[in-house]
Design brief:
Layout: E1 7-9, H1 10-20, E2 25-28, H2 35-43, E3 47-50, H3 54-68, E4 72-76, H4 80-95, E5 99-105, H5 108-112, H6 123-127, E6 133-136, H7 143-155, E7 161-167, H8 168-172, E8 174-176, H9 177-183, H10 198-209, E9 214-218, H11 220-224, H12 228-238, E10 242-244, H13 264-270, E11 273-277, E12 300-305, E13 319-322, H14 325-336, H15 345-367, H16 375-388, E14 393-397, H17 400-408, E15 417-419, H18 429-440, E16 444-449, H19 450-456, H20 460-465, E17 470-476, H21 506-511, E18 515-519, H22 522-535, E19 539-544, H23 561-566
Parallel strand pairs: 2-3, 2-4, 4-5, 5-7, 6-7, 9-10, 9-11, 11-12, 12-13, 14-15, 14-16, 16-17, 17-19, 18-19
Antiparallel strand pairs: 1-8
């Protein structure tokens, strides 16, 4: 703002619009035309976290949105920078994470005539199919409206990603300061409650009441809703066993007696009434059909979702419950009453029997100490550290690393686990880890496959630059899935899935002033992880595991055409 003339420019109008809406952190990468915006935002008291690649800044913004229920903001430069941010924007939309990608762009009159401007691109047209909404602001007096529309679009209904296009010329525009302030909008109730219809609540309760083998399935939408106490009350008052999807782990502790995680296959196949809370019947749940679900004629679904169009998307939903999760669960609790008959004892007993058997097998496997380490022995050590530090954030990606971590490492508190989500996309690791540390202030443990780590590994410099309490554990088995593939032609090149043998990822962290540890045993891994949590220093543990450990494509082998064909 220029005090003498009492005018305000586009830079400061944008900053003020964000601050007015309680947005205090920006993730991005400076460059033309947003470099000055990042400097001014920092000078105005906003926290600006600058990354080495826009995709990871976008992932950080998305994770921040999920954790805070405020849209995370990612700033990028025009054209190539904008394109780099698109993967994160699309992923946020699929995952239902609220974020806003704000990109500078070339001038409209040149772009529209295709006259060859610097980084010329019609970014708005490209972004539209990949997000919930996309807007462009051309005049400084419309910045307040633009930000308001973005916030409301990102948060209302099913959350998701929104794109905002800001041509470079906009930032230098000025207007009267008083008029500029009056043009800004503080968004009121951007995600209003959507109360379910009473007859739909009654229908769902009637179906639950008649169930012999009921199951509650919790998705990451249930975690995002932050209706933790009511969800726990619903489970415990009904006595219905629950199965959390990976990012819903910790809504109730994984060690809760009604958790059915250790009997997942059994409960999915045998349940006669399944209530979905913030979960969708997509590929992660075999689309609600097939062998995973047993006999379809004997199964009925209750689905809580804010989007009515999600209902019947794969199978018939007997009792749709449309509304926000908090309101729907509260309505169900009201209808349950004190005389509700809990889930049948024979159902709970059958689940408990299978859980105990599977957990005993797991304990035997975790007790082994092979040399070199494998996934189980390494994760057994991490499991105990997480148990002793339940408030630590856990970020997880990879193929086998994701699968094994999800089943071995228990979670005890809600929204402590961030992973690849609905798309199963790799490369989220360091962006999510940075966001988790910045937003929560808690220590972060990022458990990474060596392949997955490679997508965003350079961001360890970002972690060191901001001195974040992040400990990255790289499960190093020398390749994608494993390090034992060979070149089928007999040529000199290594196989496409094989990395440099014995790579020292720990040296990367040391290069930027962090702590690097080379761990070859569970004991070394445990000591290093505990020290990282105690010190809060940026740390990378190169956890060397057996290069034969791992299977092709992890647990989604059926999606790999060649591997699936070979098994027929």
């Amino acid at each position: 703002m220029t005090t003498e003339s009492q005018t305000i420019d586009g830079f400061h109008l944008l900053i003020d619009a964000l601050k007015l809406n309680n947005i205090d952190t920006l993730f991005g990468l400076p460059g033309i035309p947003i470099t000055d915006l990042t400097r001014m935002a920092q000078a105005e008291g906003m926290r600006v976290i600058s990354f080495r690649h826009e995709q990871h800044a976008g992932n950080a913004a998305a994770a921040a949105g999920y954790l805070t229920q405020k849209p995370g903001i990612c700033l990028t430069v025009s054209a190539p920078g904008f394109l780099n941010g698109l993967t994160a924007l699309a992923n946020a939309t699929v995952n239902c994470f609220p974020m806003i990608l704000i990109s500078g762009s070339s001038e409209r009159e040149i772009v529209d005539l295709q006259q060859g401007d610097y980084e010329e691109m019609d970014q708005l047209a490209i972004a539209k199919p990949l997000c919930k909404a996309a807007y462009r602001v051309l005049h400084a007096e419309d910045i307040g409206v633009g930000i308001a529309r973005c916030i409301r679009a990102a948060l209302s209904g099913r959350p998701g990603g929104v794109y905002l296009d800001l041509p470079a010329k906009l930032f230098a525009q000025t207007m009267d300061a008083a008029a500029g302030k009056a043009s800004l909008i503080k968004v009121v109730d951007p995600a209003p409650r959507q109360i379910p219809a009473s007859d739909s609540v009654d229908r769902a309760l009637a179906l639950l009441k008649g169930a012999r083998r009921p199951l509650i399935l919790l998705g990451k939408g249930a975690a995002y809703a932050q209706a933790d106490a009511d969800i726990r009350a619903l489970v415990e008052k009904t006595g219905i066993p629950y199965l959390p999807m990976s990012m819903a782990k910790g809504l109730l502790p994984d060690t809760h007696p009604l958790s059915a995680s250790a009997a997942r296959s059994y409960v999915l196949a045998q349940a006669d009434v399944v209530m979905l809370i913030g979960a969708r019947l997509n590929w992660l749940l075999s689309h609600g059909k097939g062998k995973t679900w047993g006999a379809p004629a004997a199964k009925q679904f209750i689905q809580i979702d804010i989007a009515p169009t999600e209902i019947d998307s794969n199978v018939a939903i007997a009792a749709p419950l449309i509304g926000d999760i908090g309101s729907c669960v509260a309505a169900l609790l009201t209808g349950i009453g004190p005389n509700w008959a809990k889930a049948p004892a024979d159902w709970i007993g059958a689940i408990t029997e299978r859980k105990d058997k599977n957990l005993s097998k797991m304990a035997e496997t975790l007790a082994k100490n092979p040399s070199p380490m494998n996934f189980h022995s390494a994760l057994g050590a991490i499991r105990e550290v997480v148990k002793a530090n339940p408030s630590a954030m856990l970020v997880n990606e990879g193929a086998n690393t994701l699968d094994f971590t999800r089943s071995i490492v228990d979670m005890y508190e809600p929204r402590k686990r961030l992973d690849v989500g609905t798309w199963g996309i790799m490369g989220i690791g360091m962006g999510y880890a940075v966001a988790a540390a910045v937003v929560t202030g808690k220590p972060v443990i990022a458990i990474e496959g060596d392949s997955a780590f490679g997508f965003s590994g350079m961001e360890v410099e970002t972690i060191c630059r901001y001195n974040l309490p992040v400990c990255v554990v790289v499960f190093n088995n020398n390749g994608v899935y494993r390090g034992t593939d060979v070149n089928g032609s007999g040529g000199a090149d290594v196989a496409p899935t094989v990395f440099v043998k014995g790579a020292r990822y720990d040296k990367m962290m040391e290069a930027f002033g962090g702590v690097g540890v080379h761990a070859t045993t569970p004991a070394e891994l445990s000591v290093a992880l505990n020290e990282a949590l105690r010190s809060g220093k940026p740390t990378l543990i190169n956890a060397v595991i057996d290069e034969t450990a791992g299977t092709e494509s992890g647990r989604i082998t059926m999606l790999n055409p060649q591997t699936a064909a070979n098994k027929k």
